[in-house]
Predict the 3D structure of the following.
Amino acid sequence: MAEIIQRDGTWTFDGETVRIVPGGKAHPVRLALGELAVPVEALSGISFEPDRKGGRLRLRLRGGACPVLRAADGRLKDGADPYVLTVEKDRTGVAEYFVDEVRNALLIEQVPEGPVDRFLLPGPSLPVSGGGGDGTASFDGATVRLTWNWKAEESKTASGPATFPLARIAGVRWLPAIGLENGYLRFEPVDGPVSAPPKYDPYSLELWGMSKKEYTAVVVAAAVLARLPQARAAVDAPAGAPVLAKAPEPAAVPPADDHDVLLRRLRELGELHRAGVLTDEEFSTAKQAILSRM
């Protein structure tokens, strides 16, 4: 059995399954996902990317095999990606051995590199919750619940927490905050998309990118996505054809820096810090990033 233990976590391989256990100080997304078991048939490859500090182990999964990667649509940073492991300099030899063992198994099993037509990983364990910005999303396998905080717009808070059964969801989309542009976690109802921006949409959380914990919204998206085809097929697919969730929207391109936007962002940061939403360290880091662009 091949094994590599690092600060980010531990990877083991027994010839059939790569088992990933996050470290205690790993990114919130990794901690929310917990232990992952990736079967060889879900892999398209593995690589070790050396650098002066050591390098990175990177698993490549076949397209459509993992609901987390499907929900993220390539937008997860390496720190949040459960299939990337930072390797220290004195463990590069172990990392290269790990790569050889997985590659040999892929050759022996003759696993194709192409995409699959179903998820080969089960998705996040339930119940699950995550997000931030103007609220929190939770999902228990049957119902999605959006709970608003004091920063949410009145159009959202007027009716209290929003709840809707999985069977009434047509799709789910996640987009992290990019530059000065807020992101969102949006659930699309079966009776048609909501035209309101995420800030006013009761089916959406707005994500501001103020904390790493906001990235856990992608875990909720993945949990819903992993169970969405079965729910939709049971509701309105009499022909028996599988119903796939909608793909995430393309990443928005942040506009050029605007002085007024930056000032507004600073005010929002101050409010969040005073309310205790941001720690001193998070506030200082975010503030310096904005000041450097003014």
